[in-house]
Each structure stands twice: as structure tokens, then as C-alpha cells.
Hints:
It holds the Pfam family Adaptin_N. Residues 3-278 form the Clathrin/coatomer adaptor adaptin-like N-terminal domain. The protein is built from 14 helices and no strands. It has helices at residues 3-19, 24-34, 40-53, 57-73, 77-99, 102-106, 117-130, 136-159, 162-167, 174-199, 204-215, 223-239, 244-253, 261-274. The longest helix is centred in the middle third of the chain and has 26 residues, at 174-199. Helices cover 75% and strands 0% of the residues. The protein folds into two domains: 1-110; 131-280. 31% of the residues are buried. It is mainly alpha-helical.
Amino acid sequence: MGDIFQLSILEMLRKICKVDPSQKSRLMNAIFILSSSKSSSVLLECANTIIQLTTAPTAVKVAIQSYLSLLQEQNDNNVKLIVLNKILSLKKQYGKLLQDYIQDVLNIIREDSVQSIEINQKVLELVTELASPRNIKEVTQFLVKEICKARKLDDSHDKTGGSSEASMGVLPTSAALSTTSSNEYRYLLIKSINQISQLFPETITEMICPLMESFLKFEKKGSMASLETIIFIREIIQVYPQYKAELLAKLVSILDDIKNHLVLRVAIWIVGEYSSTQSE
């Protein structure tokens, strides 16, 4: 069946279910069959129709799976944004169901690049909202991996000679734009880690130590991320003194690698202000 024909059938089924709700249980099976379509437009409309017609957990899971399949298969960022907005709209009513698919959500952000700030922002928002005691381990591992990736993206740009282009007066290229995206993504990561650490303080050292190792060493392009990070660390030490010794030890160990003078001054102030023993 062609896409137009399938969409026509889907529209007819939706109208019948709305006009005569008693037919819903019988006709939903036909909608489920259509949800196995290879067509992206049909798959999206099937998911939308299911959400409109029923709140049954089994049916909602079919819709969620359809949305996630679209996210994995689509290369068009505009389509991904539409689907992500659909999933975000389910968060309030079906948050617990979505928690079962946290790994699929994490996989939306690809390994090797910051594909779209808008997409990554929505994914991080979704991940933060769906974090729970059941999946916090996966969420923490994901954020640590993304911290390392954000640092490597910046390093790879340095190696391609982005700074030499600037010194020659060359207009910003795709590499420079990529650096801007990397900087924005770092801010999003810091924000997400801040939120997760407040909800799950037990994850603090697991996330903050890699954050310090990666984000405090930027010089110019990432200096604002470094400043945001050091301020965040100060807040963590102040609010969660039980992690003070470990975080201070880590901070002292990387002082020599901090290149930004303002960040270094704040780091030294933190060490002096919060160290209460000679070992600290």
C-alpha cells in the first residue's frame, strides 16, 4: 500500500473511533498493524493517532516505540525536532513509561558530533526529566561520556588549525561554527549535570571529577565553560560538604593545568576557603 492510501485509512479509522467510541477496541488493532509501516509519515501519524485515541499503557508504548524508531532512522533534523517535541509532550502524563526507554533516548545523541544544538538540548532536557533511581546509572554514564566527547571535539578543532585561520583574518568556517556548537553544548551539559546532582547527590563525584578534568583546562574558546564549571564546583562543595575532601583533592591535582587566570584565581580561592586540614 502506498503512503497516501495508508494515511487515508488511518484518517478514516481515527474519525470512526471519535464518532463511535465503541468501535475503538476493534479498530485499534488495525492502527497497530499500520504502525509497522516503513513509511515515516505513516509511522508518525500512527503514533499521533494512538496518543489521541487511548491512554492504555500497552498502546502508548507502541506509540513511543514508533517515535523512537523515527528518531533513530531519520536524518532530517527538522523531523527529529518534531518527534522530540511529541515525546516531550508525553513526559507529564507518561513519564514512568518513558523511563523504560531511557537508553533509546540516550542513543539519539550520536557518538561523534554535536549534530544539532536544538536536538541535543531537547534530549538532555528529556534525560534530566526521566532520570530515576532505576536508570540513574545509565544517565550518569551517558553524561560522563558526553563530557569527554565535548572536550575531544574542542581538541580536534585545535588540531585542524582553527586558531591559525583566525590569525590570518579568514572568515569563520564550518570548523569555527562547530566550535560554537561545542561551546553551547558544554553549557547544556553543565546545566544537566547540575540538575542531576541536585536530584541524585550520590552521583556527584562520578560526574564532577570528569567535568573538572575536562572543562577546567580550556584557555580561550572554552574559558566561559571553565568559569561556569568552577562556580558550579564551589556550589557543590558548599551544599554537599561530605564530598569536599574528594573534590578539593581533584581540584588541587589539576591546578597546574588550569590555563585561564580568572578560573585559576577562583580555584585557588576555593582551596583556601574550604580546606580545613593540612591534607586538604
